[in-house]
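S1.2 Input.
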Amino acid sequence: MAVLLVAAAGAWLGIFLSGTVRAQVGPVETGMSLRPAWNGETVVDASPLGTLTFRTHDAPLRLRITLENIDQDRAKALIEDPRLADRLPGIIESDLIDGVRDLIIRSLLCAGAGALIAVLMVFRRPRTALLGLLAASVALAGTGALAAVTFRPSSLIEPRYSGLIAAAPSLVGSAESIVTRFESYRSQLTKLVTNVSKLYDTVSTLPLYDADPKSIRVLHISDIHINPIAWNVIRSLKDQFAVDLIVDTGDISDHGTKAENKFVDEIGRLGVPYVYVRGNHDSMTTQRAVEKQKNAVVLDNKTQSVAGLNIYGLGDPRFTPDKSVAVASDPDALGQFARSHLAQVNKPDLIAVHDPDVGRGFTGATPMILAGHTHERKTTMLPSGTRMLVQGSTGGAGLRALEHAQPTPVQASVLYFDKETKRLRAWDDITLGGLGEQSVYIQRHVEPDPQRMISPAPTNAPSPTGPITGTPTSTAGPPLWHQGQSSPMLQRSPTEDGRES
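S1.3 Output.
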């Protein structure tokens, strides 16, 4: 055991000191290095633009490829010559294989030498040193075999990104590559190298997202809580990802007062449809203020077609800032509240609500449900086949960001829907450091079965009953909590200044 431990330590040190192999991959000059790691992954470092991480294998090795320089002549020829672009996948694959082969050979030699020298220095017996070398060779061969067996080329379509937000869309890839599902990973490699070449070539004028005519891009935000930083984030994501519409799943305000209404004026300046559903911190006064904004689409128990998607929205039945009225958040009651409105839902492409417990009540009624409320992002595939995406706080939960040891991150997602089928094909989860930190982290997900069967929602759920208090003052018609079907635990009543309890 002592020999094995010393050999392992020597092999690890040898790999660590093996250095970097230089390789030309298309027009990109790269440096490749191999290091032991707890999780098997491949990291592409395109500093200063950012890094891409791929879960390419399960072996405890990290392959890091650093993009060190661009051959400007080859890059220009690549961008301008379509014949070279056609041959680029084969060129890149061949260059990568050559570079990785050289890296593996160097790493094996250094690991073997490290194990041999370490055992010889500790035990000072040549035979024992050879035994350590043999043990290290077996371990390295097993690690290499595990990496080869578990290699996943498809991981290239689901990268994790961190770096400059302006460079994210070009480095991560276009929506077209997601929706059409490139036939081979070689095409995705080509896309990455081409985009890096363009980024380095343009330098100061980073390209915007390459709009894909086959997809509808939706920016999902939630729980801004009157944090003005959120508008800067939303505008940046809207421009960089060229989104077609924005869906806000509530809590744009904090207390639902008239004084907060000025905050929503930014909606009219975004220039794309802004779909909004009321949250438990938003009053009917807040909802009416949003309705007045240009581009705003307020959904409260109704369906509307926006940018090619039929979206049903339902405002939250509670108003929690008024502490004079006790409000219970019973999941069963919230689920019953949702099910009591299933009759108004006619197979929409997307349902937007505030509370995930309300969203679960619509399971089976749509392929996709968007929610917020919890300030913690989570994606769930419900048994009916409906996917529910719960968004974090796009406003870093407002002043609540200061309540914890670590700032609450600013979160949003870009969803890509197929324009023909209206089904979700992929989505990017975007996380920025809280309180104005400059870091950005993007995780891409690809929907494994976009055309899956959606089971119908149950139809025999009992309707909640109970007394209703207060008279709504909304001019847009009575909200659904006043339609004789609300639970006694989910009551709202307006005060003189337009707020509800």
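S1.4 Remarks. Residues 176-186, 202-209, 461-501 have pLDDT under 50 and may be disordered.
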